[in-house]
Specification:
Elements lengths: L15 E5 L4 H13 L2 E8 L17 H13 L3 E5 L1 H17 L6 H10 L2 H8 L4 E3 L4 E4 L6 E4 L16 H6 E2 L7 H10 L21 H8 L7 E4 L5 E5 L22 E6 L4 E5 L8 E9 L9 E5 L7 E7 L6 E5 L11 E6 L2 E9 L20 E4 L4
Parallel strand pairs: 1-2, 1-4, 2-3, 4-7, 8-11
Antiparallel strand pairs: 3-18, 5-6, 8-9, 10-11, 12-15, 12-17, 13-14, 13-16, 14-15, 16-17
Helix pairs in contact: 1-2, 1-7, 3-4
């Protein structure tokens, strides 16, 4: 199957496809491939945050220069392009969740929440309103059709695979989504951008959290949740005070550098106690977790059987580890029993579960004993919530 084959029946010209255009190379090539294939393509860019600080900075999506770049690409391809102002919804669904996570002593992954609550919910709803047959994105994952419906698989290029960030996608959403780049390498995508003569062919990839243009997430958390920058103690596992810190937001489980403590052996952050404003440190061996509690578990395949063996990816940059799945105490919870210690298991990160290349589902890593608030329901956007701007109109 070529990248532009979307598993849609009949003549491509009969199908309208909305492409989520961030202004980067990947989403631009996605749009170009579909135009070449003959689909009726509509580009939509979401303005998600106050882009004043990032307007002149490359490497961030959904703001400033990137919105301009998406408009330029759409003009080059001759397709309609609209910018939707979703700042207030992004603030509620992603930014507030991000800062609340750090205030709880967690290490959140905002890109997953953005995909879950904005791109694959709000934007997908908009695509349906436009009469589209599918919503296509530039993610490096593969959607594989099967007898039981579509399945989510890792990308062909393991170095670019983004399946970890899409575990919270629902089966109904996956039925509507398409990922034309899942079978390409990044080098092949850039070659396609040059073949199409796209003005962003050599644009660098985004690296930082998009709504933290300064690169300092601690400043954002301090501004929105100042209590997370309250000073406190750095203690060992027995509670002995070893030093002081300037805020739990500056630490994450597994961290070694920047502790400011002189000790006879390297020390690592083992736990963050937001209630006591304490950072617990200890030797590397103390990071040897074998039981991992998961919340907000989402299944893209049939729910796993208790005791089922899975490959669990506990951070986006780590290789999957073998584990057994156990039912949780409450609905939406599960527990992973790792075959071997996996090192730093950080609450707030995701644990994504695989069977070979197929994504079975996943959940959010929870700190044992912490009462975690249920996520607020994110309502479907009404037409009044979406501020449309035709980029061709200036």
């Amino acid at each position: 199957m070529s990248p532009a084959d979307l598993d849609l029946p009949g003549d491509p010209a009969r199908h309208r496809v909305v492409v989520a255009m961030s202004g980067g190379v990947d989403s631009s090539v996605t749009a170009a491939l579909l135009v070449e294939r003959g689909f009726e393509v509509v580009g939509i860019t979401l303005q998600l945050y106050d882009h004043g600080a990032a307007a002149g900075r490359s490497g961030a999506c959904c703001a400033g220069r990137d919105i301009h770049d998406a408009s330029r690409v759409a003009g080059h391809l001759g397709i309609p392009h609209y910018v939707l102002d979703y700042e207030s919804r992004f603030r509620a669904a992603v930014i507030d969740d991000f800062v609340d996570g750090y205030a709880r002593g967690e290490t959140p992954v905002p890109c997953i929440r953005c995909n879950q609550r904005v791109k694959f919910q709000d934007l997908l709803h908009t695509a349906r309103d436009l009469g589209a047959s599918a919503l296509a994105t530039g993610h490096y994952v593969r959607r594989v059709a099967g007898a039981d419906g579509p399945a989510l698989h890792r990308a062909y290029d393991a170095a670019r695979d983004q399946s970890y960030f899409l575990f919270a996608t629902t089966r109904a959403e996956l039925d509507f989504l398409r990922f034309p780049l899942g079978g390409l390498t990044k080098d092949e995508t850039r070659a396609e951008a040059r073949r199409f003569g796209l003005p962003i062919a050599d644009k660098p990839d985004s690296q930082d959290i998009c709504f933290v243009p300064s690169g300092s997430y601690a400043r954002l958390v301090e501004r929105l949740r100042p209590e997370a920058r309250a000073p406190g103690d750095i203690v060992d596992r027995s509670g002995r005070v070893l030093g002081r810190h300037d805020g739990i937001v500056l630490f994450t489980v597994g961290q070694r550098k920047g502790l400011g403590i002189a000790a006879g052996e390297p020390l690592y952050v083992l736990e963050i106690d937001p209630e006591g404003r304490r950072v617990v440190v200890g030797p590397r061996a103390a990071l040897a977790e074998t039981r991992v509690l998961l919340g907000e578990v989402n299944w893209l395949a049939a729910p796993a059987v208790d005791g089922m063996t899975v490959a669990a990816k506990l951070r986006s940059t780590q290789a999957p580890v073998s584990a057994r799945l156990s039912a949780g105490a409450q609905a939406g919870e599960a527990e992973l029993i790792l075959d071997a210690p996996a090192g730093a298991v950080a609450p707030g990160q995701a644990a994504v579960l695989y069977d070979g290349d197929r994504v079975l589902g996943g959940g959010w890593i929870r700190r044992p004993g912490l009462t975690h608030p249920r996520p607020p329901p994110i309502s479907e956007p009404h037409s009044d919530d979406r501020v449309w701007r035709d980029s061709s109109a200036g």
